[in-house]
Amino acid sequence: MKVRSRAPLRLGIAGGGTDVSPYSDEFGGCVLNATINMYAYSFIDDSVSENEVIFEAKDLGICERISLDNEIEIVGKLLLHRAVYKKVMDRYNNGQYIPLKMTTQSDAPPGSGLGSSSTMVVAMLEGFRQLLSLPLGEYDIAQLAYEIERVDCSLSGGKQDQYAATFGGFNFMEFYEGDRVIVNPLRMRKYIISELESSLILFFTGASRDSAKIIDDQIKSLKKDNGSRLEAMHQVKSSAYKIKELLLRADIQGVAQEFHYAWQSKKATSESISNALINEIETSILEAGALSMKVSGAGGGGFMMIFVDPEKKIDVFKALERFDGRVHKFQFTNEGAYSWTI
Questions:
Q1: Both 200 and 146 in a single domain?
Q2: Are residues 180 and 195 in the same domain?
Q3: DSSP annotation of 310
Q4: In terms of pLDDT, which residue wins out, 272 or 165?
Q5: Active site includes 309?
Q6: SS3 for 89?
Q7: pLDDT classification of 273: cutoffs 50, 70, 90
Q8: In this structure, are 67 and 207 located in the same domain?
Q9: Which domain covers residue 258, as residue numbers?
Q10: Both 111 and 225 in a single domain?
Q11: Are residues 158 and 245 in the same domain?
């Protein structure tokens, strides 16, 4: 049997960072995000003749073959592949390790700020859900993906990416103590989505980054904070509520303005959020007529979301030409993780 699956990447519109413990446990976090037509893919083939499991990440050029006569350790470059396989076999297949080949690829590189690592975990889990006919709903898969990354692999990060990839669409998410998550889908009118797409430029800075290290720095900054960084995080959370309301009221200009305030607050939570390159790009595009910008995800690099009057997009495109990155065309999508059998 061959199972194919995919999960959508997401843009973190507002509230990013408030979904990270211990902030979310103590104060409650909220995030507004939306999935786009860029995906992480997983292909599972259980017709392998040898007693082995093969993991191949096509986009990374990495392939690992592991004999099932040996224990599968959660180590190496394909750490997440191993962890997903091991978790599923132990928890849902009575510890019986099935010979198979799992191939993956993503439309965005690791460290892109689009939640690519978590989205890949969700895509792999969705493939196994299909392969083994597992009775797992959206919340189950998202929580399992979070557990694999944050507990089994000890990777720092928040909770929004797993839920965005699983549910799909525009969502306002709330995060509380005890891993309690509430996903509130937003009913967005088509013309609002069209105006938002027309007003946004998605620009890859050309610099990927390690989000776990940035989040670790954010956590450390909050712990030794004198109050200013915590207050900035509260402002990030407040902006998420404001942007949600503005978006539902179709006030795109208001969203763009609040975007600016949210970005200033986000930068104040940690020195790792921005850098010289991001600051230079920001100055250049604002001079060219952009309304505001922010980096999607943890910060430090990856994809940048730029708000601009659609009539002035060309001017901003020209300003971006002097940098090594590239503009990515995109559309929002309402479809979450999905799998099929061939």
A1: no
A2: no
A3: G
A4: 165
A5: no
A6: helix
A7: confident
A8: no
A9: 190-328
A10: no
A11: no
Tokens of 217: 């720095």
Say what the pLDDT of residue 205 is: 86
Same domain, 85 and 138: yes
Burial of 214 (0-12, 13-18, 19+ CB in 10 A): buried
> Is the omega angle on the peptide bond into residue 185 within 30 degrees of 0, that is, cis?
no
Of the chain, the percentage scoring pLDDT greater than 70 comes to 93
DSSP-derived pairing of the beta strands 292-295 and 180-185: unpaired
- Band of the pLDDT at 212, cuts 50, 70, 90? very low
Higher pLDDT among residues 109 and 102, named by residue: 102
268: confidence class by pLDDT, cuts 50, 70, 90? confident
Interatomic CA distance for residues 79 and 63, integer angstroms: 12
Token pair 């938002």 in the structure block, residue: 196
Q: Which residues of 100-123 are buried (b: 16+ CB within 10 A; e: fewer)?
A: bbbbbbbbbebbbbbbbbbbbbbb
19 contacts 159 by C-beta, under 8 angstroms: yes
Number of CB atoms found within 10 A of residue 320's CB:
21
183 and 195 co-located in one domain: no
Q: What is the mean pLDDT of residues 319-336?
A: 94
Domain CATH number, residue 157 = 3.30.230.10
The model carries a pTM of 0.92
For tokens 């998410």, what's the residue? 173
The beta strands (E) that lie in the chain are given as 2-14, 29-45, 52-57, 62-67, 100-106, 170-176, 180-185, 200-204, 292-295, 303-307, 326-328, 338-341
Overall domain count for the chain: 2
Q: What is the rounded distance in angstroms from the CA atom of residue 8 to the CA atom of residue 107?
A: 9
Helices (H), 209-275: 211-223, 228-248, 252-267
Round to whole Å and give the CA distance between 87 and 66: 16
How far is the CA of 329 from the CAs of 10, 37, 203, 286, in angstroms?
A: 14, 9, 9, 20
How crowded is residue 195: how many other Cβ atoms within 10 Å of its Cβ?
15
Q: Give the burial class of 287: count Cβ atoms within 10 A of its Cβ; 0-12 exposed, 13-18 middle, 19 or more buried.
A: exposed
The enclosing domain of 200 has a CATH number of 3.30.70.890
**Catalytic residue chosen out of the listed positions 161, 225, 309, 315:** 161
Residues 22 and 155 in one domain: yes
